[in-house]
UniProtKB/TrEMBL annotation:
Top EC class for this record: hydrolase
Subcellular location: Cytoplasm
Main location group: cytoplasm
SUPFAM superfamilies: CheY-like (SSF52172), Methylesterase CheB, C-terminal domain (SSF52738)
Domain notes for this protein: Contains a C-terminal catalytic domain, and an N-terminal region which modulates catalytic activity.
The keyword Iron is assigned to this record: no
NCBIfam families in the record: PRK00742.1
Domain named CheB-type methylesterase: residues: 142-335
Organism: Desulfonema ishimotonii
Protein's name according to its UniProt entry: Protein-glutamate methylesterase/protein-glutamine glutaminase
Lineage start: Bacteria, Pseudomonadati, Thermodesulfobacteriota, Desulfobacteria, Desulfobacterales
Length: 336
């Protein structure tokens, strides 16, 4: 099998060399080029067609945001953003433009080499699309009837930030149900993602805090350093990571807790992502009489998590990304 071809784009030669060194020991990966700005990256991609681009945001001549937009229009490729921790909002803007995932620069070092290489390999295999395709935004058919929705829980991984933005931006400011989100993300990035989503939505989006009371019209983003759940008092609780945990934060823990606390008033949604985290939890929502929704394959960046959920038979509806927000609005309006 041919090695995965990587292009590293960063204005810092030291940063480029560090990433190249991290990848050098794996025979399945080969850095075929480096570029110091987006313009040079575009020229290289047109000539060499790498399998994945690892890109910074702040660069001279052409920054990462513009370069990502151009790449996705001209030669769509998997893009992994590596940026400074304090530039999270810009990084998530890059995700909305087509980048698959974001990692903070402080997390890229020799102690985390194996995880970084694994991430590059996984992302390089994704068949990217020029833009995340949604539906028409018009509900195609009504969702199944259920008892009053009490809490909506959303699980997402690769491609999730952009998908969340699409869904949440289509919900009205007076949306009468709290929303809790488990999005696989690098440590300490939930604050930046929450601010980015908050700017794009009419709802209030915030990073969750321990013992916080759930409020209607608010979206709570779980930190990745712990696993989020809800209590019988409808408050946020956190569970510490355990040895052997693979996904951070756990979608299964969040969905299962919402199912067990809210029963038929629970709504579970599983979005784009690799692996099967969230499948056990969304099945629990179905077992308790709640509503379960999965993003469809056409609009998913990665159909792994939704596919695994659909194959269990526990998903009530499979919907295009653009239809999920309007369907949720229609659901809660029937309750008022």
């Amino acid at each position: 099998m041919a090695p995965i071809k990587v292009l590293v784009v960063d204005d810092s030669m030291m940063a480029r060399e560090l990433i190249a060194d991290l990848l050098a020991d794996d025979r399945e990966v080969r850095v075929i080029g480096q570029a110091g700005n987006g313009r040079d990256a575009l020229a290289f991609i047109a000539r060499q067609r790498p399998d994945i681009v690892i890109m910074d945001i702040e660069m001279p001549v052409m920054n990462g945001i513009e370069a990502i937009e151009r790449i996705m229009k001209e030669n769509a490729l998997p893009i992994l953003v590596v940026t400074a921790r304090d530039d999270a909002e810009t990084a998530f803007t890059a995700i909305s433009g087509g980048a698959l995932e974001v990692l903070p620069k402080p997390d890229i070092d020799m102690t985390r080499a194996a995880e970084f290489v694994r991430k590059v390999k996984l992302l390089s295999r994704i068949r990217v699309i020029r833009h995340i395709r949604g539906g028409t935004g018009v509900p195609r058919c009504p969702l199944p009837a259920q008892n009053r929705a009490e809490v909506i829980a959303i699980a997402a991984s690769t491609g999730g930030p952009g998908a969340l933005c699409t869904i949440l931006s289509r919900l009205p400011a007076d949306f009468p149900v709290p929303i809790v989100v488990s999005q696989h993300i690098s440590d300490n990035f939930e604050q930046g993602m929450a601010r980015w989503l908050n700017d794009a939505c009419r709802l209030r989006v915030k990073a969750a805090r321990a013992s916080e009371q759930l409020c209607c019209g608010t979206v709570y983003i779980s930190p990745s350093e712990t696993h989020m759940a809800i209590s019988h008092a409808r408050k946020i609780i956190f569970h510490p990571r355990q040895p052997g945990d693979i996904y951070f934060p756990s979608c299964d823990i969040l969905l299962s807790s919402v199912a067990d606390i809210c029963g038929s008033g629970s709504v579970g949604i599983i979005l784009t992502g690799m692996g099967n985290d969230g499948v056990r939890g969304i099945c629990r929502v179905r077992e308790q009489g709640g509503l379960t929704i999965a993003q469809d394959e056409a609009s998913s960046v990665v159909f792994g998590m939704p596919r695994a959920a659909v194959e269990t038979g526990c998903v009530s509806r499979i919907l295009p990304l653009g239809d999920i927000g309007p369907q949720l609005t229609a659901l809660v309006r029937k309750q008022s």
